[in-house]
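in:
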């Protein structure tokens, strides 16, 4: 397993009391899988990403992760507006002290491979929302991350752009043979993008169900066009109780 949660609990402690976000949470992600987690608002989805990244430590149970780096994509692209696209992509390398021409060359090659060659000298304000998210993904990949943690990275985009960027991001992640864990409120998005969808209960969250998504050819478009899409959507909606 690339990542495995085993009977994980997490409780937030504040001056006003305790809130148990996760209770007995168990699931695993194989190397190369794209896995989505859906659940009611406030059930602890972002907490799961923070635990996976090692930013938080569980209050019970264990989390096992293969020895690999992870990258985090947020709801906003978090690009520095005063930096060019190329300079933004270099940022993780600079933080890690990897300033060699070879490291930067690999980052630029990755950007050019995925359609950013003509935008390297642009500032973020000159790009569309979808293109900014592509830059954010390439920046994450340039740092060598094997496990990508995606915190609703498409939620700020309009519907049409969201569909295009979802397809784009999934294709890049698959082409680069990365492993991804996405948390989202969007059932359709989870089905279209994922090899597996994990459904959570309300807080304290536990796993209600897991579904392997095997129909279509693996691309989001083929899954949306499949006759099984609507049926799967209804199953997931029932499990969420909406």
């Amino acid at each position: 397993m690339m990542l495995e949660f085993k009977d994980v609990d997490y409780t937030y402690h504040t001056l006003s009391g305790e809130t148990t976000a996760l209770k007995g949470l168990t699931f695993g992600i194989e190397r190369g899988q794209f896995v989505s987690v859906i659940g009611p608002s406030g059930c602890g989805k972002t907490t799961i990403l923070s635990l996976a990244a090692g930013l938080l430590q569980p209050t019970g149970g264990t989390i096992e992760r293969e020895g690999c780096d992870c990258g985090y994509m947020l709801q906003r692209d978090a690009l520095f507006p005063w930096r060019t696209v190329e300079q933004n992509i270099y940022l993780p390398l600079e933080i890690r002290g990897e300033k060699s021409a070879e490291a930067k060359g690999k980052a630029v090659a990755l950007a050019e491979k995925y359609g950013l060659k003509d935008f390297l000298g642009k500032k973020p304000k000159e790009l569309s929302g979808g293109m900014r998210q592509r830059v954010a993904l390439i920046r994450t990949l340039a740092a060598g991350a094997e496990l990508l943690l995606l915190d609703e990275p498409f939620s700020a985009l309009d519907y049409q752009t969201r569909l295009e960027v979802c397809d784009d991001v999934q294709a890049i992640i698959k082409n680069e043979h990365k492993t991804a864990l996405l948390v989202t409120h969007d059932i359709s998005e989870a089905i279209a993008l994922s090899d597996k969808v994990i459904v959570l209960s309300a807080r304290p969250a536990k796993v209600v169900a897991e579904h392997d998504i095997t129909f279509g050819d693996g691309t989001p478009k083929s899954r949306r066009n499949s006759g099984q899409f609507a049926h799967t959507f209804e199953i997931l909606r029932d499990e969420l109780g909406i």
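note: The first strand starts at residue 3 and ends at 14.
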